[in-house]
Specification:
globular, 13 strands, four-stranded antiparallel β-sheet, Aspartate Aminotransferase, domain 2, binds pyridoxal-5'-phosphate, single chain, 378 residues, Aspartate Aminotransferase, domain 1, 17% strand, alpha/beta, seven-stranded mixed β-sheet
Amino acid sequence: MESATATTIYEQIGVKPVINARGFNTVVGGNTPTPRMKAAMEQVERYYVDMNELLERTGEIAARLMGAEAAYITPGCAAALALGTAACIAGDDLDKISRLPDTTGLKNETVIQKGHVYQYDRAACIVGTRLIEVGDANGTTAEQLDAALGPRTANVLFAAHLDRVPGTLPLERVLEIAHGKGVPVLVDAAAQVFPLERFTGFARSGADLVAYSTKYFGGPNSAGLLVGRKELVRAAAMQGFIGFETVSQRKAFGRPFKMDRQEIVCALVAIQEWLEMDHDRRLAEVERRIAHITRALEGLPGVATELLRRAGASPRVLRVSVDPGAAHRSAGEVFDELRNGSPSIWVNREPDALLVNPEPLKPNEVDVVASRLRALLA
Ligand SMILES: *Cc1c(COP(=O)(O)O)cnc(C)c1O
């Protein structure tokens, strides 16, 4: 019933619904709220609220859950990176806050290890810092990082998903060096949601600020979380979407980072659910789905399957390697045909393989994906 309605609305608008066997990625819609989140949002809709109070209380609860000193719910991890960096530049200085993103005369450099340069580093810099890449293709040494930190450094940006890139300095070492110079470290831990010790571990690591995305742990596509030291989180909130109306009565850039009260509450429920969830059961179900798809692909020439187990937002993924000589087509062709077919099926890919993450699928879609893959690869 529900999916029939959704299809109709999409059809009215003129877009194709997608079967998501890719993951909880923004380009495909992120995530779907659970019944508990939907019920919470429905309650929230009934009454208006003091948004500042809502942000403060949800922040306190989120901080307690994550084991952090303070927290602030943001419209996504990218927003948390921007607001966190703004906090590192201006602190609670109303004069500085009202000048951003003009950082003339202010700390205006965000330092990152070369091996951590990634697609979201611009998000930190939109508040007026310049990205300073330290090191080279072989990595970054402690001496290089230390030498790069100076009076103009606002913060160090640490990309947690790249913390095993060879030659890069681990978080503990970066914290040691940066704190030695009084420079705060902002960690992008967006996708580091599993295992739970890793998820909350960053919040408890001693990092000054840590940014998360709720899209990766069951929450809204449009929400995130900034946790960390109290004065920095408070400084970030001062520059948030209502900070200039509630705290400073001065100009600030924050309004583009606006959220709905429904999203704020939904993000909080997402944190609660994620920490309470039986993850063994969750992963057992994903593995069951992967086994189903694997069986459907058994015996196909040029096709090999492998269950990948890893940390992060897609902890169980099926790799379907395609040898274009033995199979009749390449991984890229199958990827395109899945996407362009009806229904449209999105997976991820490597040069010679498809990566199938069946976790976002509805139960009845698992076999749709399995059958289509078999038909295209047979
Ligand atoms: C998705 C992602 C982001 C952006 O998060 P949003 O919540 O979509 O703003 C930032 N960093 C990493 C590593 C991500 O994967």
